[in-house]
């Protein structure tokens, strides 16, 4: 990606929910009629691999872009209908040996949600491992500090933002080596939860083959739960996952020139 954060239409996909993006207006979002992103316009990238510091400016006539990604938005009647009185849960629920969870989308909160589950798992007595593929171990982020205090096994195989790199080929090799070690970690079966933070970028960068990653996760020990975070989750990973959440950006403090805040963002 160029340092100004702009990307081509080929590098973006519609939302996961329906693969169709419904925008308030084309002017507000920069969307083409067919759902693609025109060259020179892109949604803001968050601090997990892409930084809004480098994002293209928004249309000043609209304030901020708004993209609806839900396939069936609620009607006014549904919003004001009061508390539900019927149990929405499907019949025949069953237990699973483990789950694959994917947090993706252009909004903030993908890694944060994963680390929330990390704390929940630790509280239940699970052994947990976290592998970060973009954030450098030198960053000393808050989630790593609390994770280590809680006994989480923490591994950082990232070299930081790609635009800060002096040798992207070395970064690619480092990422591939990190993934190989991560597969060993997962297959050892010593952890009930393994979090692959920002793993999707290794696939969207073209550094690792999508099928290689998906097959490894599919073939993991049956009791190992896996959480994958990052933008642009490929369809193959979405198909494999049991639960997929797409974080949608509505507003971001970066739009008003506010930098990432220690304690909230890292």
What can be said about this structure in brief?
The protein has 8 helices and 8 strands, in the order βαβαβαβαβαβααβαβ.
**What Rg do the Cα atoms give?**
19 Å
Distance between the termini: 23 Å
- What is the overall silhouette? globular
Order of helices and strands: EHEHEHEHEHEHHEHE
Strand share of the residues?
Answer: 5-15%
In the CATH hierarchy, the architecture of the domain at 100-246 is 3-Layer(aba) Sandwich
The helix content, as a percent range, equals 25-40%
Strand order of the largest sheet: 5-4-6-7-3-8
Count every helix, treating DSSP H or I runs of 4 or more residues as helices. Answer: 8
CATH superfamily of the domain at 100-246: P-loop containing nucleotide triphosphate hydrolases
| Unreliable runs | 1-13, 17-70, 160-165
The overall pLDDT average reads 75
By DSSP, the count of extended strands is: 8
Structural class: alpha/beta
Biggest β-sheet description: 6 strands, parallel
């Amino acid at each position: 990606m160029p340092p100004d954060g702009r990307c081509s239409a080929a590098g973006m996909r519609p939302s996961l929910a329906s693969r169709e993006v419904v925008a308030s207006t084309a002017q507000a979002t920069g969307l083409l009629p067919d759902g693609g992103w025109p060259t020179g316009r892109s949604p803001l990238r968050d601090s997990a691999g892409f930084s809004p510091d480098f994002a293209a400016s928004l249309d000043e006539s609209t304030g901020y872009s708004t993209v609806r990604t839900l396939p069936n938005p609620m009607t006014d009647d549904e919003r004001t209908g009061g508390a539900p009185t019927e149990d929405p849960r499907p019949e025949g629920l069953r237990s699973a040996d483990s789950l694959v969870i994917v947090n993706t989308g252009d909004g903030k909160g993908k890694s944060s949600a994963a680390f929330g589950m990390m704390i929940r798992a630790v509280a239940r007595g699970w052994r947990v491992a976290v592998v970060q593929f973009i954030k450098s171990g030198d960053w000393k982020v808050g989630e790593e500090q609390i994770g280590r205090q809680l006994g989480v096994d923490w591994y950082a195989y990232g070299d930081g933002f790609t635009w800060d790199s002096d040798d992207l080929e070395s970064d690619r090799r480092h990422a591939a080596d990190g993934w190989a070690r991560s597969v060993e970690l997962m297959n050892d079966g010593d952890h009930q939860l393994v979090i692959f933070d920002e793993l999707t970028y290794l696939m969207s960068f073209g550094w690792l083959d999508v099928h290689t990653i998906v097959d490894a996760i599919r073939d993991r020990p049956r009791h190992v739960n896996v959480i994958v975070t990052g933008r642009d989750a490929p369809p193959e990973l979405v198909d494999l996952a049991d639960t997929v959440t797409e974080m949608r950006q509505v507003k971001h403090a970066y739009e008003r020139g506010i930098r990432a805040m220690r304690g909230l963002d890292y």
